[in-house]
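A student in our group prepared the protein record below, which I am reviewing. This is what I was given:
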Amino acid sequence: MEPQTMSLTRAMKRISLGVALTASLLLLACSEDDPTPTPTATETATETVTEAPTATPVTGGGGEDAAQDVDPSACDGIERLVAGAFPDATLLRDATAFEAGSLVGQGCRVLVTGDADELPTFVEVAQALRGALEADGWTEDIQYAADGPTGTASVYEKGEDQVLVSAGVSPKDPSVCPPDQIISECLEGLEPDEVEVHGSVVLRID
């Protein structure tokens, strides 16, 4: 090969090397100007994942033995009966244990409560609840009946359904009635707004 041709070939190689080097430097400069990294496939998937909402079971405040996952609509019929007996009272509904002698299970409860000047005596509250049940076709199972100076309870049945009817009276502040005093005598000495009267119907659902 002639010397002139060899010099031309070397010049072309230098030019190609220079162009390649320049292109590499430009790419590096562009990368430094835009510091935002390109998200990886894993990062993109993480950003689009959302947590599914979890359902919260309806539970009541009936203590350690309270029914779990209780459908509150189970007591709709019972609530209508109690509301008919006490149309002006505020009713509460929750899940609780069903306990009457040998009968033990879970249930939903409809509760009516108020001061002694808002509700009649606990005996009259029990009579009103029982009357409402009997008018609706429920019958009492007297083997589970229980009575005391400050409360009463009984079980009613209708077909395969069972309810526990109870009513009672207690001081709002238990400390005002010492343990060595007869509770009925203590209650008689209290003002009506210091005494709480309550009645409830617990429908067995298990």
Observations:
- DSSP finds five helices and six strands in the chain.
- Residues 72-204 form one domain.
- The chain has two domains: 3-48, 72-204.
